[in-house]
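Journal club side-thread
Mid-discussion, someone asked how the predicted structure for our own chain would compare to the paper's figures. Pasting it here so we can look after the session.
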Amino acid sequence: MIMVAGVAAALISACTSSDKKSDENDANNPFFTEYATPFGVPPFDKIKIEHYKPAIVKGIEEQAKEIEAIVNQTEEPTFENTVVALDQSGQLLTNALTVFSAQNSANTNDEMEAISREISPLLSQHRDNISLNPALFARVKTLYDNRANLELDKEQAKLLEETYKDFVRGGANLNADDQVRLRELNSRLALLQLTFGQNMLKETNAFQLIIDKEDDLSGLTEAQIANAADLAQRAGLGEGKWLFTLQNPSIMPFLQNSDKRELREKIFKGYIMRGNNDNENDNKDVVKQLVTLRLEKAKLMGYPDYASFVLEERMAKNANNVYALLDELWTPALKVTQQELSDIQAEIQKEGNSFVAEGWDWRYYFEKARKAKFDLDESRIRPYLKLDNVREGAFYVANKLYGIQFTPVENIPLPHPEAQAFECKDADGAHLGLLYMDFFPRASKRGGAWCGGYRSQSYKDGKRVAPVVTIVCNFTPPAAGEPALLSVDEAETLFHEFGHGLHGLFRDVHYQGIAGVPRDFVELPSQIMEHWVLEPEVLKVYARHYQTNEEIPADLIEKLDKSSKYGQGFATTEYLAASLLDMDYHILQDLPANKEKLNLDVLAFEAETLNKRSLPSQIPPRYRSTYFNHTMGGGYTAGYYSYIWSEVLDADAFEAFKETGDIFHPEVAARFRKYVLTPGGIDDAMDMYKNFRGKEPGTEPLLKNRGLN
């Protein structure tokens, strides 16, 4: 038997002297007492950096003692004294780690990153101490083998099944030597994934395009120029300078509008070379190690490749099914892309130029082509997409569908001064949860957009504990004295993440072990929300001019509708290219060898993957290997395909509304909430979908929505 508590004690003794100093102030550590805050949210105003590691280490110690108590009890294993006790263990660790992880993504600094690196091996070892505890597994296995006689309800049976599978997939059936190696692999992989993300953030923050000549601002909108001037001021660059960064709200509009081709090239190359600059933040060797060690782990666990290990627990089940979907979309998407490229070359020729378009030309000339085809200028749309109004539009859709209400909350601790807080109440007035929203980029925030939480929905003493959900984005910040105005893409992103938020708010399960859904199902609740963004009925509610409050004109709505599928060639191929790159890395069953040493050339492998599928040179994958945090940082490893897999589901699901002639049809909404948003992972994912829809989904709605049919 592994003495888990003894290991935890050893970990505590390994704390640094600064940690010991912090331990003297345990009485002031907010994690060690119940939160005396509205709705029981974390007391962000009282939590200090020095509180995190002592709380996490103590949380490890407490859970280790709880595990030891389960193992050493004299009673025979029962569902309650073993499976439920395990599911409910580690509350302090969960509380501290949940807050730390969320804050480390949204508001990090050098100290937070250092703590991440310190606790990574501790957490890896602790998780393995649980998964590889033979006495604990024996109790779980006894129950699993006798499950037919336990008279468990559906939720309990699912928890037992998932708990048993977690032990098996965690290495419980491996021999002693292989378990030792698995511990080493898990620890190294956790640290490498962390390193990858930290390197990527540093590389993103390191690049600056500083403009000091007004002529070099040609083509940019007044709002972009004002934002760049404000960025320069905040960076201490002074008057008469404009700063552009690799944050999406800065670089993407620059690539779309700047008339200066050489400057577009400079910032574009800065973007696609992140993690590939042969400096201290270079990620090529990190990728090589990750792919190599993941393959070794998969083979240790009895699988031919890492994708097989991962996909066993997904809707897709195996790599063949993933490639079948990606390949089905690749050919039509590539065909549409070639037509878009022809349009771009035509725009280049209209200007009297003969050069062949490059990656830094695509967005610029595509925007010109879209204006020529549809008379649509995105700068005409932004004034109608005031951030506050778009947010209220998302709330409106949720209210129309489910009857829920969102109310601003004042005088509550915030995870960041820029964050907003809202209470969510159900149609009957019952408290559903709290929602934080944090919208703008900063150097301490990783890129992209995501939905997370500071507390998951659970039950305690038979009563529902409401979730605390957070939505974090990197939207275009407001110019001085002006409100934040979004692009159409940003509006869709807000609705997307809000869909994840609804999933978290509606979930109603009794056990944490079955709260989650498969990765290739999790995007269904988010992506279906995007369908309401440009519906005329919804636009008329939230799309109002920020100065005059007039509704968005009908002709602009019509142009948006007609142009909505234009550009899907580019959008689909750049996404599919990244998905294929992710899969190609993780179906490797052997790595290139050089003098008996594994030697994966990351750039050569990436080039081969893209070239053999004839991806146009003007389109890099949405994420290149060295900044592909979805797969290399974990979370979407062998799973980036999940967005398009879920899009098959969400396109088909929205058809269920449209077929009724009412995009807010109450019965369809009630079924979606009941069968998709509420049950967590109690049911098989496809069964959940069929319970809602009455059938399996087809790809035709997706092809239609993307204009690929």
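Post-session note: The first helix runs from residue 4 to 13.
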